[in-house]
Structure formats: structure tokens, C-alpha cells
Amino acid sequence: MSDKVAVLVAGSWGTALASVLASNHSEVRIWTRSADQAEEINRRHSNEHYLPGILLPDNLIATTDMGAAVSGVEAVVIVAPSSAMRQVSRDLKAFWKPDMLCVHATKGFETESMKRMSTVISEELGCPEGQIVVLSGPSHAEEVVRHCPTTVVVASQDETAAFRAQSLFNNNDFRVYTNRDLVGVELAGALKNIIALGAGLSDGLGFGDNAKAALLTRGLAEISRVGVGLGANPLTFAGLAGIGDLVVTATSRHSRNWRAGSLLGQGKPLDEVLESMGMVVEGIRTTQAAYALSQQMNVQMPITVQIYQVLFQNKSPRSAVEALMGRDPKAEMETMSQETWEQWYT
């Protein structure tokens, strides 16, 4: 088996995962469309725009030639933004081999179709969705690339593929668990970005820890409600991909979604916020997709609805919080069906 791995593309998370892989494998190739970025990675072993101040491993090689990047590799790890996933997967098709392991680490939906990333990849590569592996969990690129202890989960309906991905990434700094719930892990990773935007909004408004704790708790209930409705295992949302990723994304200065929400809460317009970020904020597109999904499924997602109205209907963040606090009183646990309770406790 080859000891070479390819990563597509060279953003912050792609570069961080490539760095992890470079600790475990003889050669890691990272693909980028930017010739300047490729030259910087190869000559200076840095990617300053995305990960300033970080020295990258010598065995991490960048190229703008996708065919060269994936030639003879054991696995391809796709870390494209959700908006680019279909095109990147389509470009990969010409070089794809059926024995390659396909892992993706993108947390979002295709906005137009509301499809999960594994579905998009499967459609473009022509491989079964059940063989694709998703990597998710509480993991900021800025900490992973500095070898801070990190724990994630890899999920696939194909147990062998999940074990291969676990072996691919696992080391003393980067601990990897497996999970069979591909749908739940993907949904948790995508939907938590909406709640992280909301947490940032709350902090930007100066509402304090009580408000944020409530938002995270009710946000997890909202994520679980949608996930179970789409066939996910409810226990997934109590694990690394669920509460773990939600906490780190909604509370950390490294989180783009939290930072964007905080700026919005301080009264900055959305266009100005996105310009100042300089990187993709997946929660924006995910909010659009999840709002449409909630309407399609007829599932209550009150936090998502309010954040959607802030982002796309010019509702003030303060009015959104007031709308959430002013909802009719409810029993906390009535959001779970009897069937879900039985899944949790039997």
C-alpha cells in the first residue's frame, strides 16, 4: 500500500490536516489553485494567509496539478469549502481510482440542493456514499497545526473505510475515534456552525454566559431534532461531533463563525463582516440551507429561523433574541418523541 496521501485544498483546515498526515506518512501532497500559495508552501514551508507563524513539515508538497497530487496515493482528503465541493469533486473524477480511500472534512451543505457533502462527492465521483468517510469533531486548525492534543471522529457506513481513516490520521497528538453514523456526524458538524453564529451574536450584544449556555443547550436540541428526523443516531449528538464540536466552535476566539456572529452583534453589516474575515464562514451558507430544510421537513428550528432573519432579512440581533425569549413556554423534554427517548435510554 502507498504511503502517500493527497489533500484538496490548502485552506487553514486542509493545511492543518495535511500537517497531521505528514507526521504519519512519507509524503503528503496538497493541491491548490494558487501558484503563489504552492510556491510559498514548497519554498518557505508556510501558509501565512491561513496559518500565520507556522512552519510546515518538509514532506508536505504543494502543487497546482490535481493529477500529480493524487497519482499513486492511498487516500484523498477533500477539505474544499462547501460552495466548491461539487466542482472539486468533479475535477477529481478524471484521476479517481476505486481503491482510493475518500475522506472529507468539510462542515456544511450544498445550499442550492441542501445535500450533505458526502452525497455531493458520491454523485460526482460515482462511488457509493456509504464508502465515503467524514472527519469531524472539536478541532481548530490553529491548535491542530501546533500539535495541541485533539480528538476527532471519523464516520462511515463502511467499517473498513472508517478503520482505514482512523489509521491514516491517528497519532499521539491527534486521537481518532470511529463511528458508523455518517449522517449524524455530517449534520452535527454542519448545523453547529449556525449555533456558533448565534453564540457570537449573544456575546457581541454583551448578554453574558447565562444566555450563551442556554443558546448552546437549546441549539443542541435543535440539531438533534433535525438529525433524528433524517435518520441519525441521537447518541451522535452527545459525542465529539455533536456537543464537542458545538462547544469549541461556539466559545473560541479561533472560530470564524463565532467571530462573525460577534461582529454582527456589535452592529456591523454582514458584507463588512465577511470582508473583514478574509476566509469562508460556513455558518452563513449553512443557515440558508438549514432554514430551507426546516421548512421542507416541517421541523421546528427557532434559533436557525432567527439567525436566518438577522443574516438575510435585516432583523436586528437584539430583536432576534427577544423573539426567542418571547416564545410560548414549553416543557424542556417535550422536544423529544417517545421513540427518541427509547433510543436514548434502552
UniProtKB/TrEMBL annotation:
Catalytic activity: sn-glycerol 3-phosphate + NAD(+) = dihydroxyacetone phosphate + NADH + H(+); sn-glycerol 3-phosphate + NADP(+) = dihydroxyacetone phosphate + NADPH + H(+)
Pfam families per UniProt: NAD_Gly3P_dh_C, NAD_Gly3P_dh_N
Residues holding substrate: K107, R256, N257
Domain Glycerol-3-phosphate dehydrogenase NAD-dependent N-terminal intervals: 4-161
SUPFAM superfamilies per record: 6-phosphogluconate dehydrogenase C-terminal domain-like, NAD(P)-binding Rossmann-fold domains
One annotated Gene Ontology cellular component of this protein: cytosol
This protein's pathway: Membrane lipid metabolism; glycerophospholipid metabolism
Function: Catalyzes the reduction of the glycolytic intermediate dihydroxyacetone phosphate (DHAP) to sn-glycerol 3-phosphate (G3P), the key precursor for phospholipid synthesis.
Protein name, UniProt field: Glycerol-3-phosphate dehydrogenase [NAD(P)+]
